[in-house]
Design brief:
Helices cover 49% and strands 11% of the residues. It is α/β, with parallel strands linked by helices. It is globular. It starts with 10 loop residues before the first strand and ends with a helix.
């Protein structure tokens, strides 16, 4: 196990009715006006918007609204929200929605203090200040509600990059699993794939890290079990709650503690969805990860076979990958580039897109452009 430090100061409010309770955290910090950042409007139909704004009104907290965050969040919307913050003198950012809204809130929070809000994503500017971030989560997937990460797309140049900085870590987040019963099934499925993928990015880099490996295996099994239950009954509260908590644990530093991490698959997926933003992050990962596992399996055969056995109940990595792809297909997820509407002619442009930001990726195996291409070809059909 690597030497490591764990410190996650985000306060998490979890359970029925949690959404409105975020306002208690906002008022406890003395905020007077917040930017309310949201996506396409589902929070109005599921009641979350009403619950939160009623609580804001009762507490005497003003708010300014910016809507339209996309599933692959883009810089142009962040710039719009930053202007709203500056014009209205907001002193905090409140995201209501899924991981894309949370990631956008973090981009806004640091971007208010930047000459170029995109520069930290390029790695050409440091984050030295940020507005406090609060999150009401309505889709469990990315773990952004309890980490310091943000992914953003610069849509003109088709760049999808990330930042990690504790200054954008949420002060508090609220999760009401019952709210997620209204999600379209594909969003539940993509969320499950995303959470499993986050765990695997750390898992396959493990070398004797027994506690973290065992925690990771248990989380992956529970995500699979809960998602299976939800496919049969989407309003199953216990399954919703278990999936939501597991998705948070997948990327809040618990499951990956002491593990080096790999993250090559996320880099490959970012290259896919940067150029094809209609492809959701979860869909891209469902396609890229099985191919990456098959390509890198010889790096640590014992661990890969253990993953197949402990997570999927299979003997050997090949049958483990087959079981994963079969499960994803049963959930209605794509498992090939062709199912995403892409073909062999799309591979080289994607490789070029990845390579201009990441000449190398990965720690399990160090990958470069030829390896990116090989993995994408494995994912083609």
């Amino acid at each position: 196990m690597l030497d490591a430090v764990y410190n996650n100061p985000t306060k998490l409010i979890f359970g029925r009715g949690a959404s409105a309770k975020i306002v208690d955290e906002i008022t406890a910090k003395g905020h007077k006006k917040v930017l309310l950042l949201a996506g396409g409007g589902s929070i109005k139909s599921n009641g979350v918007y009403s619950d939160v704004t009623k609580a804001l009104t009762k507490a005497g907290v003003q708010w300014v609204e910016v809507w339209g965050v996309k599933p692959n969040p883009v810089l142009s919307k962040v710039l719009e929200a930053i202007e709203a913050v500056k014009q209205s003198n907001c002193d905090a950012v409140l995201a209501i929605g899924g991981g894309s809204t949370a990631d956008s809130a973090k981009a806004v929070a640091q971007g208010v203090f930047q000459e170029d809000p995109w520069a930290p994503y390029e790695g050409t500017a440091e984050i030295t200040n940020a507005l406090p971030v609060y999150i009401v989560l309505t889709i469990s997937a990315t773990g952004s509600e309890m980490n310091a990460n943000s992914v953003l797309t610069e849509e003109v140049e088709q760049k999808k990059y990330h930042i990690i900085n504790d200054l954008v870590r949420p002060v508090a987040s609220a999760i009401d699993p019952a709210v997620q019963a209204t999600l379209p099934w594909r969003q539940t499925g993509y969320g499950a794939v995303d959470a499993i993928s986050h765990i695997m990015e750390g898992y396959f880099s493990g070398k004797g890290d027994e506690v973290s490996l065992a925690v990771s295996e248990a989380l992956m099994r529970e995500i699979i079990k809960s998602t299976d239950k939800l496919q049969l009954a989407e309003s199953n509260y216990e399954a919703r709650a278990n999936l939501a908590w597991a998705a948070t644990l997948a990327l809040n530093g618990i499951s990956s503690f002491g593990l080096e991490g790999d993250w090559a698959t996320h880099g490959i997926e970012h290259g896919i969805s940067a150029m094809h933003p209609q492809i959701s992050h979860g869909a891209g990962l469902a396609v890229a990860f099985p191919a990456w596992i098959s390509y890198t399996a010889d790096a640590n055969p014992a661990l890969y076979d253990r993953w197949a056995r402990e997570v999927w109940g299979q003997n050997g990595v090949e049958t483990g990958v087959k079981a994963m792809k079969n499960k994803y297909q049963l959930w209605g997820m794509p498992v090939s580039l062709s199912q995403l509407g892409l073909c062999v002619a799309d591979i080289k442009p994607i490789v070029e897109n990845i390579s201009r930001h990441d000449a190398t990726l990965g720690t399990v195996k160090v990958l470069r452009a030829p390896e990116y291409e090989a993995i994408l070809k494995l994912a083609l059909e």
